[in-house]
Design brief:
Blueprint lengths: L6 E3 L6 E3 L11 E5 L5 E5 L15 E4 L9 E7 L7 E8 L8 E6 L14 E5 L2 E4 L10 E7 L7 E6 L3
Antiparallel strand pairs: 1-2, 3-4, 3-5, 6-7, 7-11, 8-10, 8-12, 9-10
Keywords: Signal
InterPro entries: TPD1
Amino acid sequence: MNYSGQCSQDLTTGSHTGKKSGYDSTKELLLQVSGISGEERTLLHPHDDDFGIYSNTNRRMLIPANECTNKDISISQRRDGSPGIPRFSVQIVNTCMSDCAPADIHVYCGWFASSPPPNPNVFRRLSYNDCLVNEGGPLGHGAIIQFQYANSFMYPIRFRSARFCR
């Protein structure tokens, strides 16, 4: 399948549709689904607002992205329910479809501390509100970084910065 931005392929029928005039498919990811009732829903939003609506009834279209942004780094955590000092599980996932993986990922983490600490190659506090993920290495498409920590409360861990390909 050619992702040059000149054409997109209809994933349900294999037919091709031309690109919309003025639309740069090399920088957007848009998955549009039209239901039987004809209503359209955008399942994955593009990274800015200058996109076109494609109406192909009962068809799905995928226009690949060639750039990742901070919206492509998903961070979730939950308490694991073990007795004693609360333990929390954290997952950091790269959802970007690009072959160029984000690297040097930093997250806000307050005065993060845990006993025992997570593997420092996976997650390490550098200073107040600055923790480094994956030793600064690239996080490939679909890659998941997981670790656990123990503390009396859940730290608010959220994206801070990363180096993205341009």
